[in-house]
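Sharing a chain and its predicted structure for anyone who wants a worked example. Both blocks are below, sequence first, tokens second.
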Amino acid sequence: MNALNTVAATSLLALSALLFSCKDDDNNNPTIPVDNTDTFGATLNGAQQIPVVSTTATGAYSASFDKTSKVLNYTVTYQGLTPTMGHIHSVTAATAEGNTGAVSVPFAATLTTPLIGQATLTQAQQDEMYANRTYANLHTAAYPDGEIRGNIKKTD
């Protein structure tokens, strides 16, 4: 009988511990996750270059921008060319979309595909990017003004 009392007492103690350890999970104020990241992309080719370049080279630009930290993480892939320089250009608001602009963000020093890098953007650079006034550009020895280009657009 003593063994039965011990088993019953132990079971009651375990059940009590289980019930008292349960927490009220009803949350009347749920936290809604905030997505602070936007994604951008571009297809690079000679047809978008100014002036247009006849080339079989192509490329792609993809990036994510963290609106809190202001950090742009980018990847550029390409085929059919050997770049000598690469960067993001910005076209100012005073010029029409489709024109050329100054270098805004240089790509990583190593120009082998994929080009992977990051940059912290100024407010002016952010404004230009969100206004569709930026483009990715790869330059070559044959085309020092740029062989392929892609106008950067928000993708999400």
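Comments welcome. The chain has a mean pLDDT of 85.
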